[in-house]
Amino acid sequence: MDKVFRVPSLQALQALVEVATASNFTQAAQRLCLTQSAVSRKIQQLEHHYGVPLLVRSSRSVSLTTEGQHVLAVAQRMIGELEALEKRLEPRDSAFRIRIHVSLAVRWLLPRLTDFYARHPDLALSIETVATQRVDPSGECDACILYLPAPADDQAHQVLFEEFLVPVCAPHSVNGKVPPQSLDELSQYPLIHGSTGQLEWASWLQAQHLTLARDSKHITFNLDELALEAAARGMGIAMTDQALAQDLINRGELIVPFGPPLKTGGAYTLWLQPSSALHPARPAILEWFARHSASLIQGDKKTP
Fold it and tell me: What is the pLDDT of residue 215?
């Protein structure tokens, strides 16, 4: 009969991780809410289990032996996996966490949240906004809303809407003038950019077989949210995604002075963390996002 493998004490492994992190027993004991002698005994227990010294002790600090480094690597991996497992299995009555770019949150998601809570008064969303160019899908969240240059062909991504670039401006006065009536008047107005690369205007004009005029005045921001606000205040004409501007258009704060919209091939998608599969709110949230993405698609069909 095979000998039963004796598993080392998990508490002793955790003590080794804390001692190695702090390089002394005092801080490790404080983090573990134990006495220094108790931490020392756990390390000794672990050394007895493996039959080799794991630490080199001095009067001021401790360091790992070669064997200690090997044990530490395994201990860190085990504890990390156990933490991840606990998060996957814990009761999920907490809010469903969504990471999203701040401009998209303000201009697309926020106007729709009233409908979400009206349909699902017992559910809660936790919205985490980021202002970086790319939303990082890793870390503590259940889902992310990502911009992709082309829609992903996998079930982890649910397309919310495709990107259509449109020019927008205030309805009554743009830089002290009446809004333009045609593309021919564009050179008379400042161009507002929602990204420092100014790619949106360049792409839209290229589709019209035009280029950015060298003498054009440019107002550049790093957020669509700021560009839209500047356009609504009459500072110039912004180029943005139609879905981001739609709420301001519906409220009469912005107009599309000329067209047509440019379909870029990009898309905004809802990406789900694998761990969110256990969240009880996930089916309802998926259904709600699907409902609003369908309404956007129907709206696109009506776009001239």
Answer: 80
